[in-house]
Amino acid sequence: MTATPRPLPQPPPPADGLPRGETQQEEPSFGRGACCPACQTPLTDALTGVLDRRRWDHDASQALLQARHRPWPLALILVDLDRFKDINDLYGHPAGDAVLRAAATALRHHSGERGIVGRYGGHTGDEFLILLPDTNLEGALAVAQNIQVHISSLSVHTMASCDSAVTIAGWTVSMGVAACTDLIPGDLSELLLECDVALRDAKRSGGNQICIAGSQAPTSHGGRNPAVEEVHQLADGEVCIPLARYLQTAPSTSRSLVLSPESAQQLHADLTDVLRQLARAER
């Protein structure tokens, strides 16, 4: 006589409904200033303190969903530092970093508590994104104009070399502005594209402009940028002459002519002689 083994009683299933031995994976939470759980990399830009592009996309997408469900208007501003490469070339990259930090601080201050500010174009770019929830076009323009005025009044004191300091002032920004009220898009790509086109229009118009998406003309112009558009002396005594100030088309390889003090004096003497000859010829 053989006995048939009876099956052992099975333990009750776990409360989470998953097979025993497995645990439920939590959704990543990207809090402000947090790190990505997968790679433990910061989600804010280390240099400027604003959101990096990944975190900005996350927060902006959440704001977009809220705008569609409320509903409320939504506006976007793209900000570009005019001729930022010239600042790096003339004063060095540490000076350029100081300008980026000052600009980012100004953008956060003037974007309000609900403004979502991020760096656009990676960690080496000089462009920023500002998403403004519950803000129409008029409100976004007011924010952009405040930023334009504040940036132009900033002065950044930094080192141009190990033994010389420099003050960078008078730099400007170009901005593209787009807003949506009645029809909120399904994602950010359309709004970003419209704003990017407006920013390109602002840059093509000479910089220091605010352009509205879909508009043919700039809405604001703040004047020239003396830091990079006028003849000025560098920290080491050399004289910088922006070629675009005198030529209709400046060479693409170099926008400025940098002369030693002696060469600048010689150029001044040569130009003085030429002007005297022209004056005699007109008599």
Task: Offer a concise description of the structure.
By secondary structure, this protein is of the alpha+beta class. 36% of the residues lie in helices and 20% in strands.
Question: Would you kindly provide a written description of the structure presented here, covering whatever features stand out?
Answer:
The chain is α+β, with helices and mostly antiparallel strands and 283 residues long. The protein folds into two domains: 53-158 and 165-222, 2-Layer Sandwich (Alpha-Beta Plaits); 230-277, no CATH class. The protein contains seven helices and eleven strands. The chain has helices at 53-69, 84-91, 93-110, 137-152, 189-204, 226-229, 261-282, and strands at residues 74-81, 116-120, 127-133, 155-161, 164-169, 173-180, 209-212, 220-221, 232-233, 239-242, 256-259. The strands form three sheets. The protein has a six-stranded mixed β-sheet with strand order 2-3-1-6-7-8, sandwiched between helices. The chain has a three-stranded antiparallel β-sheet with strand order 9-10-11. Strand 6 (173-180), helix 5 and strand 7 form a beta-alpha-beta unit. Helix 2 (84-91) runs antiparallel to helix 3 (93-110). The chain is elongated and about 75 Å long. The chain starts with 52 loop residues before the first helix and ends with a helix.
